[in-house]
Amino acid sequence: MNREEARKKIEQLTEIINYHNKLYYTDDNPEIEDYEYDKLFRELENLEIEFPELKKDESPTNKVGGTILEKFEKFEHSIAMYSLSNVMNEEEFWDFDNRMKKELNEDNIKYTVENKFDGLALELIYEEGKLTAAGTRGDGQIGENVTNNVKMMSNVPKKIKEKNKLIIRGEALITKKDFEALNKEREELEEIPFANARNAAAGGLRQLDSSESKKRRLKFFAYQIANYRDFNLTNEYKAMEFLSDLGFTVEGVHGNIDSKKVLDIYYDIQENRSKIDYDIDGLVIKVDDVKYQEKLGFLSRAPRFAAAFKFKPEEKETILKNIEVQVGRTGALTPVAKLEPVQVGGVTVSNVTLHNPNEIKSKDIRIGDTVVVIRSGDVIPKITRVVLEKRPPDSKIFEFPNKCPVCKGDTAVTDGDVIVRCINEECPSKITKYIEYFVSKPAMNMDGIGKEWIAAFTKSGLVKTPADLYKITKEKLFEFERMGEKLAGNMLKSIEDSKNTTLKRFIYALGMRQVGETTADLLAKYFTSIENFRKADIEDLQNIEGIGEVSAKSIYDFLNSEKASKLIDDLLEAGVNPIFEKLAAEESPITGKNVVITGSIEGFTRTSAKEAAERLGASVQSSVSKNTDILIVGEKSGSKLKKAQDLGIEIILADEFIKLANK
Questions:
Q1: Are 390 and 250 contained in the same domain?
Q2: Where in the sequence numbering do the catalytic residues fall?
Q3: Does residue 376 lie in a domain region?
Q4: How many domains does the chain have?
Q5: Residue 579 burial by CB count (10 A; 0-12/13-18/19+): exposed, middle or buried?
Q6: What is the pTM of this model?
């Protein structure tokens, strides 16, 4: 390649990498897998090494991370927060090892190896033993202040025994188990599932509403002490032990090992990483001795004493036989790729959700193509790209239907959404899918009424709405083939038993967008009766800790629709009796009351104070409103106290609450 060709290629790669950096770091919506990105980045690095005069100061190889979202306060790192250089294979690992030995003039270097978490890098600051601030990495110098969201993370200590200032780096991520639950809930709500756990974690931290962030079930995994000099720590492994002793989650660390052992660990974890309950995309190798680290120093964007030894994702090629469009209970039209079955990561994959028309178009996916399939985060099957050189001449461009494929009714895209939906309320598929949802275990739990029977009931016209289930008679059931006395009896008993249900199940069964099991539980605890819930206003809904502005509006709009009023009326008239089940609680002056806690209470974190109040039978709200019964007041209380006094709300002081909680 001559100089002019190199210049053009460098410009092209720079533009592509900057585009993908924005998608990954700023928008939390990457289009390519890490491995593909790393290949582009490596190609640019090599060209800049070969033609150093063409490298520009603003090159992506000189930068860390992405741009800062303007909606957040800036968070300045007192000590720069770096990225990592990559090692892509065994040969490059030995190059790294030999370079360390040569530059340190040492034949027996010891390393610390850690799992390379696939999440979002964070910095936490503790002063006088308290968490005072937290920020994203950003560009390494300036990040985003996400302190309130980090305080919502269940495994982040709010207090530690170390009183000296401590600056900790680590990764925010979502475990595979929680990620599957999160996506299952989104699919039940017919929202687009998250492409991977990293996107979900990054998006969760970048919520202005901390209650929305809390829903993502984020965890923090510590991997570095930035101000290590203040603690006389002489090696990396001891630093990790120090963090673990303080109560931080530290996992996947192997210390005081030589280069051969590093490789053994690498191949072992690569082989068994699917057994780990969180995503890792490689290992981080660090020279263990802190003095050696300081001697080796840093490059513009990464330390010279450490590297990310990346795993290659398991990719398999297969044929895309067809694309079918499924219609869900809210009318969402979801394209599903039908594949020649292929084994990926120990699982047979034959169906892959394509989510929406944009994905099909952006990846130029056609029927008949050879496609590359991975399991994103070792969990969700995903088509990463088309093998264009294997595209057959008779491949077909998929035309997304402009009418519902089931009822041929009109479709539309809701404002702020990318999902195409059938808007025909009489669509058979919408009715069938909704009845399936209504009878499911988390909803009305009508055991024994399977999808096959629901399809038969809706097709015949016997069931058009959930209330119709309660009108079914044994005589009507006997009109269906293969229906026997015992089966009919079991179905009718299951339907009858479902009338006595919990308020949480009933709210969930209504099928509101933005309301999964967790939100249904919050709504039940706050309103305690279906009558109260039906009268909810926007202020009520936004007062519930864990429900954000978007969810509140969606719920309010549903409750005030003619369709919802008729649905609830019909179900109550049919004999459905939703009861709020309170947990067994100690009798106290706050039992059964709506309570708000303001200010700091000695001996309690915000979370533990909330838990103590709930244990005493209270329903804890986040804001004072006309529905608040009691305000518990600690030190440095703010505007909530004045508002409570103006509304004539009962006040309980911190000392009295502490006595109640410690009885």
A1: no
A2: 116
A3: yes
A4: 6
A5: middle
A6: 0.55
